[in-house]
Design a protein that fits this description.
There is one protein chain. This protein is α/β, with parallel strands linked by helices and about 475 residues long. The chain has 3 domains: about 1-145, no CATH class; about 150-255, Rossmann fold (3-Layer(aba) Sandwich), CATH 3.40.50; about 285-480, no CATH class. It is about 50% helix and about 15% strand. It has helices at about 1-35, 45-70, 85-105, 115-145, 155-170, 215-220, 235-245, 285-305, 305-320, 350-355, 380-385, 395-400, 415, 445-460, 465-480, and strands at about 150-155, 175-180, 200, 205-210, 225, 250, 265-270, 270-275, 325-330, 335-345, 405, 430-435. A 6-stranded mixed beta sheet has the order 3-4-2-1-5-6, with helices on both faces. The protein has a two-stranded antiparallel sheet with strand order 7-8. Helix 1 (about 1-35) packs antiparallel against helix 2 (about 45-70). The longest helix has about 35 residues, at about 1-35. The radius of gyration is 27 Å and the shape is globular. It is a multi-pass membrane protein.
Length: about 475
C-alpha cells in the first residue's frame, strides 16, 4: 500500500514537471515566432520562410520534453532537492540545441538566428523556473506531511542516530523515518542504545534487528531502507538479497555526511567499488566565473536600487544620532581583515552597552551575542533587520572583492581567535552576503549547526549551488526566519 502511494505521488509530480517543461517551450517558441515574424499577418506573403517555423513551434515542446527524458531530467531520485536536477535540465537544453544545430547544418536547413537565440535560452530559463515552482509545491506538501518516503534506518548507536537526526532536521528532504532496525553484525555491540524492540531512538521506534529486516519493513510499510556506513560487507550483501523483489529503495550512507554528489564517484579497484572523492573546487576557472558574476550582479543591483539605498540611509540618519553606515572589521578569505558595511541598526553606544546585556545572550555557547528583543536596536533598525535590508551595503564589499554573493557568514576577529582547527576551513573562501546559514534559520541556528553549514558550503561549492541559494534567499527573507 505504501509503495503504491509513493509511486502515485511520484508519477503525479513527474507529470507536473512534464507539463511545466512543455508549457515553457510553448511560451518560448511562441515568443520567438512572434518576435521574428510578428509583423507578417498575411501568411501567403512569405509562405516558404514562415511555415517551417510554424511546424517547428508546434513540434518543439514534444521534442523538448523528449530531450529532457533522454537526459534523465525526470529521474525521481534527483527531484525535489539538490542542484543535480537543475544541472540535468541545463545539460539537456544544451545538448538539444547542439543536436538541432548539427541537423540543420547537415540538411542545409536555414533557421533564423534570432529565432534560435530567443527560443532556446527562454525555454531553458522557463524550464528551470518551472522546476523551482514545482519544488516549492513539493516542499509545501512535505511540510504538511504528504509526498514522503517512509524510511527504515538500519544501523547501531550514533550512526543510526545521526541519520535520524538529519532526516528530522529538514522536513523538505521527503524522509519520514518510521523505524530503526539495529545492526546485529558479528562483533557489533551497542552499549549506549537499547538493543531490542519496544524502545525508541530520538522518538523513532526500534522495530527489530537486521536479522528480522523483512518483517520490520512489512510492519512499518517502509518504501526506503537507509543503511548506516558501519555495516560490514557480508551483512550488507545479505540485506540486499533479502530486499530483492520487494520494490523497496536501498540507500547506503557514507561516513562523509557533508560531501555531496558532484565530488563523489565510484571507482572500481581490484573488483571493489570504492568512493573517489574529488578535492573541493577552491581555485580555477569556475572561481573566476563566480567572481565575475558576483561583481556584475552587485554593480547592477546597486545601480538599479540606488534611490532605495539612499532613502534607507537617509531614514537611518534622520531617526537616530550617528552615521547611516555601520563599519566593522571582519575576517575574509585567507584570514585577511576587511571593513564590512551595513546600515546602522543600533544606537551609537551599542557596543558600550553590550556588557550589561551579556546575561541575556540567547546563545548558550557564548561565541556570538544574539538577543531577540535587543534594546540597543533602533526603531528603523528593527524594520531593516526584519527584512534583511541592513545587509544591502555589503554589495559594496562584493563589488570591491572582499565578499561574495554566496559564502560562509563573515566572522569577527574575536570569533576567529577562538576557532578550533577544523573551523578555520571557513576562511578558505570569501564570506557571503547570503549562504546556507541564511536560508536555514540564521539567528535561530545553534553555533555548531551554522559551522556545519558553512563547512558544507566550502566542501561542495558550485555555481549551481550558488544559484539555488540565491533563489531560496528570496523566500527566506520574505518568511523573515531568524531575522532579529
Amino acid at each position: 500500500m505504501a509503495y503504491r502511494a509513493q509511486v502515485t505521488w511520484e508519477r503525479r509530480y513527474v507529470r507536473l514537471l512534464i507539463l511545466f517543461d512543455a508549457a515553457a517551450c510553448v511560451v518560448a517558441a511562441g515568443l520567438a515566432f512572434f518576435v521574428r515574424f510578428g509583423d507578417l499577418v498575411d501568411f501567403e506573403t512569405k509562405p516558404v520562410s514562415i511555415k517551417p517555423y510554424i511546424l517547428m513551434t508546434v513540434l518543439l515542446p514534444v521534442a523538448w520534453v523528449l530531450a529532457m527524458s533522454l537526459n534523465r531530467a525526470y529521474e525521481t531520485r534527483f527531484l525535489g532537492s539538490g542542484s543535480e536536477e537543475f544541472r540535468r535540465v541545463v545539460n539537456a537544453a544544451a545538448r538539444f540545441t547542439a543536436a538541432l544545430a548539427i541537423i540543420s547544418y547537415a540538411t542545409k536547413a536555414e533557421i533564423a538566428r534570432s529565432y534560435v537565440l530567443i527560443a532556446f535560452p527562454a525555454a531553458t530559463v522557463l524550464s528551470v523556473a518551472g522546476r523551482v515552482i514545482g519544488r516549492g509545491i513539493l516542499h509545501r506538501m512535505r511540510r504538511a506531511g504528504r509526498c514522503l518516503h517512509r524510511v527504515l534506518v538500519v544501523g547501531a548507536g550514533e550512526s543510526a542516530a545521526t541519520l535520524v537526526r538529519l532526516a528530522q532536521r529538514d522536513p523538505t528532504s521527503g524522509w519520514s523515518v518510521v523505524g530503526v532496525v539495529l545492526d546485529r553484525s558479528p562483533g557489533r555491540h551497542s552499549h549506549d542504545r537499547p538493543e531490542r524492540s519496544g524502545f525508541d531512538l530520538l522518538g523513532v521506534p526500534i522495530v527489530g534487528t537486521s536479522e528480522t529486516l523483512h518483517t520490520a519493513i512489512t510492519a512499518t510499510h517502509a518504501t526506503t531502507v537507509a543503511i548506516c556506513p558501519q555495516m560490514d560487507g557480508e551483512t550488507l550483501r545479505r540485506v540486499l538479497w533479502t530486499l530483492e523483489g520487494s520494490d523497496v529503495d536501498v540507500l547506503v550512507s557514507s561516513a562523509l555526511t557533508d560531501v555531496t554528489g558532484p565530488r563523489i564517484s565510484i571507482r572500481p579497484v581490484a573488483g571493489l567499488p570504492l568512493l573517489h572523492i574529488d578535492e573541493p573546487e577552491l581555485t580555477g576557472t569556475r572561481r573566476v566565473m563566480k567572481g565575475v558574476f558576483d561583481r556584475c550582479v552587485a554593480g547592477t543591483v546597486i545601480l538599479l536600487f540606488l534611490p532605495v539605498l539612499l532613502g534607507l540611509g537617509l531614514a537611518v540618519r534622520l531617526t537616530s544620532r550617528g552615521p547611516a553606515l555601520f563599519k566593522q572589521t571582519r575576517v575574509g578569505r585567507g584570514g585577511e581583515h576587511f571593513t564590512m558595511f551595513k546600515f546602522r541598526s543600533m544606537y551609537v553606544d551599542a557596543e558600550a552597552r553590550k556588557a550589561e546585556l551579556e546575561s541575556h545572550n540567547e546563545r548558550a555557547e557564548g561565541l556570538l551575542f544574539k538577543m531577540r528583543d535587543d534594546p540597543r536596536v533602533t526603531r528603523v533598525g528593527k524594520f531593516l533587520r526584519k527584512w534583511s535590508l541592513d545587509e544591502l551595503p555589503q554589495l559594496i564589499n562584493v563589488l570591491n572583492g572582499g565578499m561574495s554573493l554566496v559564502g560562509p557568514r563573515p566572522p569577527l576577529p574575536s570569533e576567529v581567535a577562538r576557532y578550533e582547527d577544523d573551523v578555520h576551513r571557513r576562511l578558505m573562501v570569501k564570506p557571503g552576503l547570503t549562504g546556507l546559514w541564511q536560508i536555514s534559520g540564521r539567528s535561530d541556528l545553534e553555533w555548531d549547526e551554522s559551522v556545519r553549514l558553512d563547512l558544507r558550503y566550502v566542501e561542495n561549492w558550485s555555481l549551481a549551488m550558488d544559484f539555488v541559494i540565491l533563489w531560496r534567499t528570496v523566500f527566506a527573507v520574505l518568511r523573515r526566519e531568524g531575522a532579529y
